[in-house]
Amino acid sequence: MELRRIDRLPPYVLSVVTDMKAEARRRGEDIIDLGMGNPDLPTPQPIVDKLIEAAQNARNHRYSASRGITKLRLALSGWYERRFAVEIDPDREAIVTIGAKEGIAHLAWVLLGSGDTVLVPEPSYPIHQFSAIFSGAEVNSVPLSHDTADFFADLTQAYERTWPRPRVILVSFPHNPTGHCVELDFFDRLVRFAKDNDVFIIHDFAYAEIAFDGYKPPSILQVPGAKDVAVEFVSLSKSHSMAGWRLGFCAGNARVITGLQRLKSYLDYGVFQPIQIAAIIALNECDDVPPAIAGVYQSRRDVLCDGLDRAGWHVDKPKATMFVWAPIPERFRTIGSLEFSKLLLNEAKVAVSPGNGFGAAGEGFVRFALVENEARIRQAVRGIRKVLET
Ligand SMILES: Cc1ncc(COP(=O)(O)O)c(C=O)c1O
């Protein structure tokens, strides 16, 4: 029997190395896991304490509100105000999601159907492409690299070349996996373009708070009038190390937020209420947490990039995200990113993500996730140095 929506999916390359890593660990090998972007830092204690307290109250064991409890949406609105001087109406312009990933996947259902086209940078975080595929739409990719000079020009050219015209553009800056970053001027131009061409923008802002060396990633909602044509996803997964809690938000265009709310009201009953209550603490009382977490990733970035550099592998330091996007050293480039990742796993005992797991345009790269401590990253560099020297 055909599994209609599943059979259309391309093979999930990222799982190849993940499976090999699990197998090696079962054999008792010490693998340093810089593969999946799964934060290793603990969620701050005040947030955990609030979860425990809220879980003790039977009133919180019932179905919650699918769109999120009012106080949590208010807390998001306060965060936007403090961080970006952006006003978000918590009732009309904000919704809680089960992480950004779930929100993006379901928003694609709201906005797209067969015959529609979406523009998405490639390489990309897999759900950016798969959400469109699940909804039945076609994906048109726009190549993106960490050093792309003018992504806006590339994007608009791709738009002009696509027929029927894309209805949605999905972008995400700071960008996983390439680390590409933009300034507010990019969003300014994008919003104007969207208005002129009647296209809708989804901005995945998962790395809003994970930025380095004084760089402050802009929100698309800072652009006056952005709410007419855009929504933005934010997430507590990385900013507060709450990846397993599954809590994110979508904010912006009221009509689209209402659409997502309607769809989700058929599909889920909301995030477990104690998690939502604890998330209020994260947003209202933990503004010192995201900079501290970003500081840890920044130090790890430096240990990795400086160590690789000393081993003869030059990799640019990203300004943001928890990833390092590394061009495969010349000598190994012909074997491809999957084989090179297998080599690092087998010989250096380091798991990384092959670049082609993020789309064909990621070929020639591997992605390091900064999710082990500095001592382990130094150990990883030692293993990699041996591979490079053989
Ligand atoms: C760009 C991007 N968006 C979304 C997510 C997932 O966010 P969440 O945990 O909120 O679903 C990730 C996780 O790696 C990501 O890299």
Describe, in plain words, how this protein is organized in 3D.
The protein has 390 residues and is of the alpha/beta class. It has helices at 4-7, 14-26, 45-55, 70-84, 99-111, 126-134, 151-161, 184-197, 236-239, 254-267, 273-285, 289-310, 336-348, 374-389; strands spanning 32-33, 94-97, 117-122, 138-143, 168-171, 200-204, 230-235, 248-252, 323-327, 350-351, 353-354, 365-369. The model has no long low-confidence stretch (mean pLDDT 96). Strands 2-8-7-6-5-3-4 form a 7-stranded mixed sheet, with helices on both faces. It has a 3-stranded antiparallel sheet with strand order 9-12-11. A two-stranded parallel sheet has the order 1-10. It folds into 2 domains: 4-43 and 289-389, Aspartate Aminotransferase, domain 1, CATH 3.90.1150.10; 45-285, Type I PLP-dependent aspartate aminotransferase-like (Major domain) (Aspartate Aminotransferase, domain 2, 3-Layer(aba) Sandwich).
Radius of gyration, rounded?
21 Å
CATH C-level of the largest domain = Alpha Beta
How would you sum up the global shape?
globular
Helix count?
14
CATH topology of the largest domain: Aspartate Aminotransferase, domain 2
> In percent, how much strand structure appears in the residues?
5-15%
